[in-house]
Specification:
The chain is of the alpha+beta class. Helix content is 40%, strand content 31%. A hairpin with a 6-residue loop joins strand 2 (36-43) and strand 3. The longest helix has 15 residues, at 16-30.
Length: 96
């Protein structure tokens, strides 16, 4: 069963360029992971400094394996340090 992962980030505008480079690096690693289906990054129009990534995975277990991947952990720690607040995650599945 596919799952959708909503990844929410809030960031100061003066850190947008640094964040973008980190997200490009993270995406580069993500697309090669088992179970990764697709992803899109959305910028919130009514609140500058808020971003939503919608990532689709073949299963929640494959997503969790990626979350624990040391390379991902390394990049995510840099992102959270840059932003000063933790990234928020929500996992959704299609209702039967």
């Amino acid at each position: 069963m596919t799952v959708k992962i909503l990844i929410k980030r809030k960031f100061p505008e003066n850190k947008a360029a640094q964040l973008e480079q980190m997200l490009i690096d993270l995406r580069r690693h993500t697309v090669n992971q088992p179970g990764y289906v697709s992803g899109e990054t959305l910028q919130r129009l009514d609140r500058p400094g808020e971003m939503l990534v919608i990532s689709t995975w073949a299963s929640a277990d494959q997503w969790r394996q990626w979350v624990l991947n040391p390379e991902r952990v390394r990049i995510q720690e840099k992102i959270d340090a840059l932003l000063g607040i933790p990234t928020e995650y929500e996992i959704y599945a299609h209702r039967k």
